Automatic annotation (TrEMBL):
Domain SnoaL-like: 20-115
Protein name: SnoaL-like domain-containing protein
Species this protein is from: Bradyrhizobium betae
Domain of life: Bacteria
Matches recorded under Pfam families: SnoaL_2
Length: 126
């Protein structure tokens, strides 16, 4: 499969919505199996997470930590070519202030996310 045929926007938006916004463990695991290669790696600012089960665990913990209305919202359209894609996002409670902004950068192999870098923007000082 060439990367010219990949819908980068759909892939990265699905990752936000179906993995990092999904509170149901079974639905999240099914989405990860569909969207990620068998042995994915996720690079967070403070950790390297390996494997589908660990990515699911991290997503579940984030949602528990930040409360029942916390959501990741895509900003604009994901862009990509030659196996690399980028999607900016913001996150926070629904109808509340933005808590964090950042972007996901993904390396795509065979139409699935192989490696995902979670980049957080610096917090603005008040």
């Amino acid at each position: 499969m060439t990367t010219d045929n990949i819908d980068f926007d759909h892939l990265l938006r699905s990752n936000l919505e179906r993995v990092f916004n999904e509170r149901d463990d079974d639905k999240r695991r099914a989405a990860i199996a569909e969207l990620f290669v068998e042995e994915p790696v996720m690079y967070e600012p403070t950790d390297i997470v390996q494997g589908r089960a660990e990515i699911s665990r991290v997503a579940a913990n984030l949602l528990k930590q930040f409360g029942p209305t916390f959501r990741f919202i895509p900003d604009g359209v994901a862009v990509g070519h030659h196996g690399l894609a980028h999607l900016a996002w913001h996150a926070g409670p629904e109808d509340g202030p933005v808590a964090v902004t950042g972007a996901d950068v993904a390396e795509i192999e065979g139409g699935k996310i192989a490696r995902l870098w979670v980049l957080l923007n610096a917090q603005k000082s008040k």
